[in-house]
């Protein structure tokens, strides 16, 4: 989950930086980079092993 959090934080940072720029290639590049980081976060989430659930009780 650390990788997922890292990528999401990077995406937020890119969006924050892009929000302060007027429309330009730099702004577009930051927004594209944010999309990349979101995809990496999704990929990291899918690759992470699932957390074990509560033990099953036998009846």
What does this structure look like?
With 59 residues, the chain is mainly α. It has one domain. It has 2 helices and no strands. The protein has helices spanning 2-19, 25-47. α1 packs antiparallel against α2 (25-47). The longest helix is centred in the middle third of the chain and has 23 residues, at 25-47. It is rod-shaped and about 65 Å long.
Main attributes?
single chain; 59 residues; mainly alpha; 0% strand
Helical fraction: 55-70%
Q: What is the average per-residue confidence, as pLDDT, rounded to a whole number?
A: 87
Give the domain tally: 1
Helix/strand order, N-terminal first: HH
Give a quick precis of the structure:
The protein is mainly α and 59 residues long. It contains 2 helices and no strands.
SSE arrangement:
Blueprint: H1 2-19, H2 25-47
Helix pairs in contact: 1-2
